Amino acid sequence: MGNRFKKEIGMICEFSPSGAAKPLFIKWEDGRKFSIDHILDMRKAASLKAGGSGIRYICMVHGKEVTMFKDGDCWWLELDG
To answer: Any residues with CB less than 8 A from the CB of 4 and at least 6 apart, and which?
Structure first.
């Protein structure tokens, strides 16, 4: 993507009957998986750091707060730079 504030990721999700995605695991490009411990917030939002918008998920992953976005079928992490 060429943006130092974005990192495309794979995602393993559970879907509700209405089609809402609940992320369960982040899948890194080398195959590692990181479980999402807790979703703190989920809403439509824009990324002021990375640009772009979509559904923003603020989650706890291994005790660290992580911000990720779902834009269509694409998932990406917002990085500190």
So the answer is: 79, 81
